[in-house]
Amino acid sequence: MAVSVNGKGQRVWALRNRRQQLLRWAAWFGGTAVFVYCWQFISDATTWFFVWDAPRIAGDILGRAMPPRWSYIDQLWLPLWDTLNIATLGTVIALIMAVPVAFMAARNTTPHKVLFRWPALLIIVSSRSINSLIWALLLVAIIGPGVLAGTIAIALRSIGFCAKLLYEAIEEIDPRQVEAITATGASRWQVMTYAIVPQIMPSFAGISVFRWDINIRESTVLGLVGAGGIGLQMQASLNILAWPQVALILIIIFIAVLISEWVSAKVRGAII
Amino acid sequence: MTLTAPSLQRQWKKPPFIANPWLRWGLILGGSLYLVLAIASIDVNWARVYEGLERGWKFILAFSQPDFFSRSRDIVEGMEESIIMTVTSTVAGVIISIPIGLGAARNIAPLPVYLICRAIIAISRALHEIIIAILMVAIFGFGPLAGFITLSFATIGFLSKLLAEDIESMDRVQAEAIRATGASWLQWINYGVQPQVMPRLIGLSIYRLDINFRESAILGLVGAGGIGATLNTAFDRYEFDTAAAILILIIGIVMALEYGSGFIRARVQ
Questions:
Q1: For chain A, how far is it from start to end, CA to CA, in angstroms?
Q2: For residue B42, is it within any domain?
Q3: Does residue B46 belong to any structural domain of this protein?
Q4: Where are the alpha helices (DSSP H) in B127-227?
Q5: CATH number for position B78
Q6: Would you call B251 and A125 a contact, using CB atoms and an 8 Å cutoff?
Q7: Residue-wise pLDDT tens digits, A238-266
Q8: I need a labelling partner for A242 at 20 to 30 A (CA). Which of A131, A183, B66, B162 fits?
Q9: Are B235 and A82 in contact (CB < 8 Å)?
Q10: Chain B closest CA to A201's CA: distance in Å?
Q11: For B9-63, what is each residue's pLDDT tens digit?
Q12: Phi and psi dihedrals of A5, rounded to 5?
């Protein structure tokens, strides 16, 4: 128990002893120093005149954007359909590829700890660290602009996410069920279908809907690099400074994301 | 139940995942119909894809000999900017998201405050970082400040939501005990609520640091600072060896961050 001594020489309760206090103080000091140094860098790289002017500019843009150009919505249905397709097909492709990766990465199902598990973990980490926009940028350079590039970009980004959550679910299964099925003399594949798959099915469904929800959000911006969807319309509107159209697109994206979040929450609620 | 002869001859079948047959077949039919329609509506220029395969192969080959040096100055500057934006925006985002998280917890905040805070969270979560970055670049001009504001705003939505959920599911007994001692509101938050949510808050902040770094890599595409601008230029000029070097650096830093954050989270919790 830490104590400190007050002016009259009495011992009083204190939360931390001297050493802990000093350590905390040093950590806070170091952290603040790093933050101030970093802020200095940003401050140097900023034209402060623009920042002081920002409220006026923001008001100006808002003034131009209101009211949104509602009639423009006729041209948005097709891009919205494309956006939905990019997200859904991307998720489906990702799930198909994530399943074998997850089984290779899970400690209890991997065929070999080094030969199969490590490559699987490498696939997961590379897919997770690279943003879908970067994948889209790369794929647009390779296979040309369009919905296909967007779909593959979403798929590549989602493999890591789905495989990671799935392999964690596989590692948490109840081993007794696997043993029971093995004891009946089942083959490796039969153990898989009758002992492992039924246990991970709920989390598999949950993961796929969860990722689908995230992918809707991501696919709305892929068009900015030419990979199809409603982002293309946004880029076009931004280029001609048609702020009322941008406002409408932002509202549509907001509604679409809210709907997808609602659907995903409902489905996950039904599973669990 | 009595076992009769016919039931003994029946073979056991695996129970289906979705019990209701109408829902099951409806989902299967609807899903296949949608897939057919969706795949049919994608028009692919196969000639262009075929041409691209060679470039794709070149890109994969580039990973075996990444070029860190010929553009090393651009890479170092971009990385420095990305890391600095990540650190500052995470700190600012965490500081701002604590009051908003408190406001968005229904068991602490009154209804009007709750609704305002939830609205801020909804907007921040619905709009992708890059959209916010475009608006911020339009308002604040090019440079890392726009990226900093974007990432801070995105951090607020993520962290406040999870913090609010954590506060809503906290143990009421401890908080009431503090209140019974006659503590003021601030003391109540500090001694009754804060100790319960602190470990998770630290864990989430570190996780967000990790996410912010990954996101900072794309903000450069719209001029909001960071490594993204360098990467974009490398792709545009088909300098796949430089692009591969940048991607390898990003993967390396993310792996290091993930390992470090796992270590800290294990110690805190």
A1: 45
A2: no
A3: no
A4: 129-140, 144-168, 172-180, 185-187, 194-219
A5: 1.10.3720.10
A6: yes
A7: 888 888 888 888 888 888 888 888 888 88
A8: A131
A9: no
A10: 8
A11: 678 777 777 778 888 888 889 888 888 888 888 777 788 778 888 878 887 887 7
A12: -110, 130
